Amino acid sequence: MKGRELLSSFLPGLVREKGWEKQIDLHSIFLDWQELVGEVADYATPQKIVKNVLLIQVENSARIQQLQYQKSELLEILNGHLRLSRVRDVKFVLAPLPPPQQKEEQGVRFVPPPPQEQRVFEQQIGTIGDEKIQESLMRLWYLDHACKRDKK
Questions:
Q1: Which of 51, 54, 48, 47 is nearest to 95 (CA)?
Q2: Mean pLDDT within 58-83
């Protein structure tokens, strides 16, 4: 318990000495955001404070427009919460779009085509003089007929 008491008596002095009191007060907005702004917290999140300007990430442009009308009220609420510092301004930024959802992988089954169909296609390409082209066409046809996608 002595270590904890020593730390609790040491920290306030360190905070004062380093001049962190105003910054800690200012950043308390992040901890108390939900209770300060209520339902606004459902679609707007504080991101950072730069030179006493709070950047708030908002889910869409319609909400940004709405918050622009509430800007002075929001500043009043935030500054009413602070004891040692002030938020000079708030800026609203659009939240990045979520990454596109990946399509579900469809399974591929290998089902050899009927031998009769294979012979018919071999006869059709038999008129081509180049054996490499015949072989390539046969492989392509075979894969096209043998690989079946599972439907989900």
A1: 47
A2: 95
Residue 8: predicted pLDDT = 65
How far apart are alpha carbons 12 and 6 in whole angstroms? 11
Tell me which H or E stretch contains 55: strand 53-58
State residue 115's pLDDT score. 82
- Phi, psi (5° rounding) for residue 39? -65, -15
Q: Which tokens belong to 10?
A: 């040491």
Burial of 29 (0-12, 13-18, 19+ CB in 10 A): buried
SS3 81: helix
Phi-psi region of 97 (alpha: psi -120 to 50; beta: other; left: phi over 0): beta
Q: What is the pLDDT of residues 41-62, one digit of tens each?
A: 999 999 999 999 999 999 999 9
Residue percentage of the chain with pLDDT more than 90: 43
Q: Which amino acid is at 25?
A: D
Residue 92's nearest CA partner among 46, 52, 51, 50 is 46
Structural domains of the chain, ranges and CATH numbers in brackets: 2-94 (3.30.300.180), 108-149 (no CATH)
